[in-house]
Specification:
Layout (H helix, E strand, L loop, with lengths): L1 H5 L1 H19 L7 H22 L5 E3 L4 E3 L1 H28 L3 H20 L3 H19 L6 H32 L4 H9 L9 H15 L8 H8 L2 H26 L4 H23 L5 H21 L13 H29 L10 H4 L1 H15 L5 H15 L3 H27 L14 H19 L2 H8 L3 H4 L1
Antiparallel strand pairs: 1-2
């Protein structure tokens, strides 16, 4: 019974997807209700997840022959997936009404992709990991090219698919090397078999580790596996771009953490060195290239690459879990993902509002936004300051915990590079603020920007949580500390 209850949030997402798709096949009259039906499914899934997290004691265990893990870490990402699904659906309502008549298919794939994130977080076997990984990838390919008449979107989807196929193939080959070495696909059994492996076979693990990181690096948009993201972010429908920037990255980090800590703990020295290099490259390249971007979606794409580099510091800086220690690395990762979720999705909500009005995503189009919509300009400032890491916002707490973990483990060089990169990032974030407040407004663009209720709700709620997480961080820190069932035992 506990197992069934634990999987209720995932089942709700899956059944909602089937229901939305099925009703879409019935006739055209029901289609106007489909976004609300999809939203109801994500809200119910979120409510059940929060109930399970707060009031039901979860016994750490694996089921289905060890393929599925039941722990608080998986519950955290079930909450994360439901949040992403609900916010993306709200962002999509007006946007997709004007651009596509295939609403049933669209909302079905949003729910399926969100379900895939939660499935990734519970996967404790290489076979299940690959299935969930590909389910998320295929859903993302389809969503990226969903607007069939948009040539840029189709091009982005093809590039995304080609990069993803190669990354998945290399990751699968790495999995086969691990299976050949340990005779098991279960992460726990792999760790046990590797602990007593003959020294003559240990060398096989190193290429397997590199090949696995190709797949995980592609999903977390870490350099040098990031090449697909700028084109995909720019070409995809903007709500889908928001999903790729937050949901897909979150799923990538969920499985990266589980594989490294559960399956390869004895090789921590090796994967720490590899991930440190990816972190430094991601932070530096992402921030430097973002400076020159003229399109705000491409700028946020390179910003996301840099943010992934910051998050990787948390995994590098994991030195073991201790109750009450907030600088353990993993706590930093989880709080950073929450902060990034609300700040980035809030920023994309502003981007969608502006795009719906003027049909463009150029940064120069944000000139004088304070006069056209004080709400959009004011909240965008909060979101951008959070992404920089300014005190008083959630971004400061996330960076403090991640950078503090690096300092705690005496990775001073990594922490210094991260701090320098945060300063560099301020240049292109503040540039957007400069346009919104200090650049003159063109005469033809003086018309006010009116917001729909769904966009207004997303912008206000994400702004409120961005500030709340910066000012009253302790409840959120306690929440992520309670989510570390993967390492607590």
């Amino acid at each position: 019974m506990q197992i069934i209850i634990f999987f209720l949030p995932q089942l709700v997402l899956l059944l909602s997807m089937v229901l939305v798709f099925g009703i879409d096949l019935v006739g055209s009259n029901e289609k106007k209700w489909l976004p609300y039906l999809a939203l109801a499914g994500s809200v119910i899934s979120l409510a059940i997840s929060l109930y399970l997290f707060g009031w039901v004691e979860v016994t750490e265990q694996t089921v289905l022959g060890g393929m599925i893990a039941i722990d608080s870490f998986a519950l955290f990402f079930q909450i994360f997936a439901a949040l992403v699904a609900g916010i993306i659906i709200l962002l999509s309502m007006e946007y997709m009404d004007e651009r596509s008549s295939s609403k049933g298919e669209y909302y079905s794939f949003i729910l399926l992709a969100s379900f895939s994130i939660s499935l990734l977080s519970v996967s404790a076997d290489l076979i299940m990991i690959f299935i969930a990984f590909e389910l998320l990838s295929i859903s993302s390919y389809i969503l990226t090219g969903f607007l069939r008449n948009d040539g840029k979107g189709s091009e982005a989807a093809i590039k995304y698919f080609l990069y993803g196929s190669i990354a998945s193939a290399m990751m699968l080959y790495g999995m086969s090397l691990l299976y050949g070495t340990t005779a098991s696909t279960n992460l726990g059994q792999i760790a046990q078999n590797l602990s007593g492996i003959d020294s003559s076979l240990r060398w096989v693990v190193y290429p397997a580790l590199v090949l696995l990181m190709v797949g995980f690096g592609y999903k977390t948009v870490a350099v040098p596996f990031h090449q697909w993201s700028p084109d995909a972010y720019e070409g995809a429908p903007t709500p889908v771009t928001a999903f790729l920037a937050v949901g897909s990255i979150g799923g990538g980090f969920a499985i990266l953490i589980r594989v490294m800590l559960t399956g390869l703990p004895d090789f921590q020295v090796d994967w720490v060195a590899l991930i440190s290099a990816l972190s430094i490259l991601s932070m530096t390249l992402g921030n430097l290239v973002a400076i020159s971007q003229k399109n705000i979606k491409r700028m946020l794409a390179y910003s996301g690459i840099a943010q992934a580099g910051y998050i990787l510091i948390g995994l590098v800086s994991w030195g073991g879990w201790q109750a009450g220690n907030v600088f353990d690395g993993l706590s930093g990762i989880l709080i950073y993902l929450l902060v990034y979720l609300v700040a980035n999705l809030g920023a994309f909500a502003v981007v969608i509002a502006v795009e719906n009005k003027i049909g463009s995503n150029q940064i120069s189009d944000y000139a004088g936004l304070i006069k056209r919509s004080p709400l959009l300009a004011g909240t965008m400032v909060v979101f951008l300051l959070s992404l920089i890491g300014i005190p008083g916002t959630g971004g400061f707490v996330g960076k403090l915990m991640v950078f503090g973990a690096a300092m705690n483990m005496e990775y001073y060089f990594l922490a210094v590079i991260a701090i320098i990169n945060s300063v560099i990032a301020g240049f292109y974030y503040l540039n957007v603020i400069r346009y919104m407040f200090f650049q003159p407004l063109d005469e033809p663009a003086r018309e006010k920007i009116k917001l729909t209720r769904s966009l207004s709700a997303v912008i206000i709620l994400t702004c409120a949580f961005t500030l709340l997480m910066g000012i009253f961080a302790q409840p959120f820190i306690q929440f992520v500390q309670a989510s570390l069932g993967i390492v607590a035992n």
